[in-house]
Write a structure and sequence with these properties.
The complex is a heterodimer. Chain A is an alpha+beta fold. Chain A contains ten helices and 26 strands. Classes of the chains: A alpha+beta, B alpha/beta.
């Protein structure tokens, strides 16, 4: 009996687990990157954008064990190289995001002692643990990392988590095989913010500023003490102070302070602090303050703009148009403020500041939407790509190994169906640290529609006809099929399962009860000009041709 | 090591001098034929006042000024020095670092908000200078910043009055005991505790000073002591480099702090609110830089019940340098009314009443050599009223700071906000505000009580 056959069982299992995947995949896809038969790959036929503003046609890229071995037209490809055919596709450097905390957890904070004094808490309770390495609290296998990789992020700059304003040190990781080493660079910066532990000293930006001044001065003094101890007799042993020691590279200008800002006033606070205390500074989360661009440039401060843009105020539910002149003017100012936010990245580019982007607080599905909005408002495509590749690579000193496509660099790239920022662009492959992740391009959601197909097929029982009804509602496909009832006369209708329709392809499954058995039937084929040409596979029995024609004006 | 020390010395002064590098805008203008309320030289009727490059160049009849200087006809109008508010919390992002009974290390200059619309509202009340203070949650609060209301300047430092000396907030009585004692069960829980906290602070600062002095003596051999910005600041208070502005209500606590200051050799202290100041007026006159009071505001909590609207007059008559302050983003718009009320209750002269909001607060802030009266050589900070400012019908028409006009009742646009949040909603405008007060940002410490202990604002 058909349903006893292993292949049918497997098919059921397949069906049952189908829904677990966030995006349906085809049999040949490998979104996990784990089915690896070789570590040598060659990409052929693609249009290459090795770095922002450059474009190469007819070049191949060869990479082996995670390193790009060759880019060019005429080099011999090793026999063991697996070919990634990328005709009509585009290859970009893998994207780099800054200040992301996906997969990061908080370090464990001990229980507060009984005699706890909130006005003078030990550093750990006040959220002052700048010595913590984010990599000690990072799970590379955290599922959301794969989701970010799927949109093209290959290197992520992880920020530490904590309750307070000095949670620890950042690191760059690659979203390659999560079971293998993925640290690109650690201790890249000391992360700080104005967020504090409620109710404990320091609570407000007032206290944070004072505390930072004090910490940096004391880090210098500890340095003096250490020097004295190392060079003279009779000097008492310097204290072991993890907090101050973590600040020593900062005061020596060897490590930047990466500071989360919430407003242009925050930016000004930190510029003042930098001027007072002289340290390297990178600001992250910038979303306003066009007027500060020249100051930021002059101060040589690293700038990381947020991609988490405000919603269009006029699209909000609360938005009210009014004939009242005053309200009209006020509305216009809100819109102008919104447009200023959208123009900011373009203004940074215009000023020649090599800024990067942060994805903190950003929803994954807004990533390209935000980028396109910024591009519509003055940011160039090269500028956007630079902010996601070479600029962050330079900012954190990994430009020798990442950020663009060149021989000797990490094999980090994305292969897209269209140019990176175009509306229809879809990602076909992401290559991270030489691991190839393949994704089945998602069909574009189309408007609600209904269509009917008339089909014809012949089985051993003879010629059979019927209709396929396909309904598209809010991007979801539903379908039914009518068929000659094998157990009697007349037509029967049943739901289609796993229906997929694209411009060139259609497939679906359905079940027919015949002789007390459930027959699993799969139909798959190509669509061209209103004609469907494919096969019907009665699982476990036979495969027969299946042809259908779209009816232009079906009778209801 | 030497470099580190020089560095500390440099950065300490740098914190407070940073803004000096940017020169604030200055203007030239001649105001013709106005009634000048000079404060220090009586009323000069139908007189010209010429401001050049931000400074009052000349006061006199029918002044000859170079061509190109614009003029304003002030015939029949009243011209007074820009009003000064010695106790305010406008233009601040944060008011209280309420997490510790002493927070002398914090500095309000770090959290100045130049976008605050209250600055414009203050200008519309003729106020050109305000003392942006830390709140009253702590026995020793943060260091304050004296602001010039150069509205439109988007950088906080653009509002700093760089000439002004450093000041610091102290607070006595119910606020610090409630925040720390009742809120967190630490010292101070009583008025005695407040005194102890202040004394401990001063004692620690003395020990700290000693540690650093010893280190300096044996430079190169000694291990550097740790750096403590809190005690650094208190050392400067003890050295008379910082003026104390102390939130206080009751006569006993005022007298207590006078005694403490005498003991530690501190003479730069101004008492704020001082509702029972009239009981210790001779002591205030003798030992302090005076009192900064409300005209007639009291009974918002227990320690403020014993009060009188004659306070400003009694203090003035007893020789206490007295000012009237707002401590509010609303009252700051009509400080000339507050001065008028003090005059009405206590029979002060016009000059005495106007001094309460001009030269007297200027002296208390240590800025009287630049502002507070119409005198040649002082800053061209001017408020023009259509009538005498002590008239209840008076309306401020224009306000200038250093010769630059920042408010013009007839010419300004309706919407004077400098910044709009793209996420904000357009809603009806309510004519009250509640955020600029002494106890802002301390709510957290009272959540355990299950009720709002802070309906009062000071």
């Amino acid at each position: 009996m058909a349903h006893d056959k292993p292949s049918v069982l497997l098919f059921f299992i397949f069906l049952a687990t189908w829904g677990i995947h966030p995006r349906p995949t085809m049999a040949q896809s490998d979104p996990s990157g784990s089915k690896r038969v070789t570590d040598v790959f060659v990409i052929t036929g693609a249009t290459l954008i090795p770095s922002p503003g450059q474009l190469l046609e007819g070049h191949k890229i060869l990479f082996e064990k995670g390193i790009i071995m060759a880019i060019g037209k005429d080099f011999s490809v090793p026999a063991n190289a697996q070919e990634i055919k990328a005709d009509s596709l585009f290859v970009y450097p893998g994207l780099i995001e800054l200040a992301n905390k996906t997969g990061v957890s908080k370090p464990k904070i001990p229980e507060r002692p009984d005699d706890f004094d909130p006005s003078n808490p030990p550093a750990i309770f006040a959220g002052i643990h700048p010595y913590e390495n984010v990599l000690d609290h990072y799970d590379p296998e955290f599922s959301h990392n794969a989701e970010w990789r799927k949109i093209g992020i290959v290197i992520s700059h992880k920020i530490p988590m904590g309750e307070g304003f000095l949670p620890g040190q950042t690191a760059l990781v690659v979203y390659g095989n999560p079971k293998l080493p993925n640290r690109v660079k650690e201790g890249t910066s000391l992360y700080a913010r104005f967020h504090t532990v409620s109710g404990l000293y320091p609570t407000t930006p007032l206290g944070v500023m004072a505390k930072l001044r004090e910490l940096m001065q004391n880090a210098r003094l500890l340095e003096d003490h250490q020097r004295l101890f190392a060079s003279q007799q009779g000097v008492r042993i310097p204290e072991r102070n993890k907090v101050l020691e973590a600040f020593q590279p900062v005061v020596k200008g060897e490590k930047p302070l990466l500071f989360e800002v919430g407003s242009e006033l925050d930016i000004l606070k930190l510029l003042r602090l930098k001027e007072e205390l002289n340290f390297d500074l990178i600001l992250t989360g910038i979303d306003e303050g066009e007027a500060l661009i020249p100051v930021i440039k002059k101060a040589g401060v690293g700038a990381v703009l947020t991609l988490n843009l405000p919603e269009d105020p006029s699209a909000s539910e609360d938005w009210e148009e009014s004939e009242d002149q005053e309200i009209k003017k006020r509305n216009e100012r809100i819109l102008e403020a919104y447009r200023d936010r959208l123009r900011l990245a373009g203004k940074y580019e215009e000023a020649g500041i090599p800024f990067a982007f942060s994805t903190k607080h950003l929803r994954k599905d807004s990533f390209y939407k935000s980028l396109r909005l910024l591009i519509e408002n003055g940011l160039s495509q090269e500028g956007a790509l630079s902010a996601l590749t070479i600029h962050p690579a330079k900012m954190y000193g990994i430009d020798e190994i990442a950020g663009d496509l060149a021989t000797g660099k990490m094999a980090n790239m994305i292969i897209t169906t269209d140019t990176l920022f175009s509306e229809d662009m879809q990602i076909k492959y992401v290559i991270a640290d030489g691991y190839v992740f393949e994704y089945e391009p998602k069909e574009k959601e189309t408007a609600d529609s209904e269509e009917t197909w008339k089909y014809e097929t012949s089985t051993r029982a003879g010629k059979s006809t019927g209709e396929i009804f396909i309904k598209r509602e809010q991007g979801k496909l539903k379908g039914k099929i009518s068929y000659d009832d094998p157990e009697g006369s007349g037509k029967k209708k049943t739901d289609l399962k796993d229906l997929k329709v694209s411009s060139g392809h259609m497939s679906f499954d359905f079940e027919v009860v015949a002789g007390g058995n459930n027959l699993e039937i799969r139909v798959e084929g190509t669509i061209s000009g209103g004609k469907f040409d494919g096969n019907m596979n009665i699982l476990g029995f036979s495969t027969v041709p299946f042809k259908a024609t779209k009816i232009e004006n079906p009778k209801k | 090591m030497k470099s580190a020390l020089i560095y500390i010395a440099f950065s300490l002064s740098a914190i407070f001098l940073m803004a000096a590098s940017e020169r604030p805008p200055k203007g030239s203008i001649v105001i013709r034929n106005g009634n000048l309320l000079t404060i220090t030289n009586g009323l000069l009727e139908a007189t010209d006042l010429w401001i050049e490059d931000g400074v009052i160049k000349k006061i006199g009849k029918e002044l000859k000024v170079p061509s190109g200087i614009s003029s304003i006809d002030a015939t029949g109008k009243y011209v007074m020095p820009g009003i000064i508010d010695a106790h305010s919390h406008i233009a601040l992002e944060t008011v209280n670092e309420a997490s510790s009974p002493i927070t002398s290390e914090v500095w309000m200059g770090d959290v100045v908000d130049p976008f605050d619309i209250s600055i414009y509202r203050a200008l519309a009340g003729g106020v050109t200078v305000s003392h942006a203070m830390h709140g009253s949650a702590n026995a020793i609060g943060g260091q304050n910043i004296t602001l010039k209301h150069r509205y439109g300047n988007k950088e906080p430092s653009g509002l700093f009055m760089n000439e002004a000396p450093r000041t610091i907030k102290f607070a006595l009585g119910e606020n610090p005991t409630r925040v720390h004692g009742r809120g967190k069960n630490i010292q101070p829980k009583s008025r005695m505790g407040v005194e102890a906290v202040i004394r401990n602070g001063f004692e620690e600062a003395k020990q700290y000073t000693k540690r650093w002095e010893e280190y300096e003596k044996n430079k190169g051999k000694e291990v550097p002591p740790s750096y403590n910005l809190r005690l650094e600041t208190l050392r400067d208070v003890l050295d008379g480099k910082i003026i104390i502005h102390c939130h206080s209500y009751r006569a006993d606590e005022i007298y207590m702090l006078i005694q403490v200051c005498k003991e530690y050799g501190i003479d730069k202290i101004v008492f704020s609110h001082v509702n029972e100041g009239f009981k210790v007026a001779p002591e205030l006159a003798k030992y302090s830089m005076g009192a900064s009071v409300f005209s007639d505001w009291w009974a918002y909590k227990f320690e403020v019940y014993y009060s009188t609207a004659y306070n400003a007059a009694i203090l003035t008559r007893n020789g206490v340098l007295t000012s009237v302050n707002s401590d509010s983003g609303e009252v700051i718009r009509h400080l000339y009314h507050e001065a008028g009320k003090s005059q009405k209750y206590g029979d002060l002269s016009d000059e005495e009443a106007l001094s309460l909001i001009t030269i007297n607060p200027a002296i208390q802030l240590g800025i009287d050599q630049w502002v507070g009266s119409l005198e040649e050589g002082k800053h061209g900070d001017i408020a023009i009223f259509d009538r005498h400012p002590l008239s209840i019908y008076a309306i401020p028409e224009m306000t200038f700071i250093e010769g630059v006009k920042y408010f013009d009742r007839h010419e300004d646009e309706t919407d004077q906000r400098l910044k709009v949040d793209p996420r904000e909603k357009v809603e009806a405008v309510y004519l009250y505000q509640e955020t600029h007060n002494c106890m802002r940002d301390v709510d957290f410490f009272f959540t355990n009580f299950g009720r709002n202990l802070f309906e009062h604002k000071h």
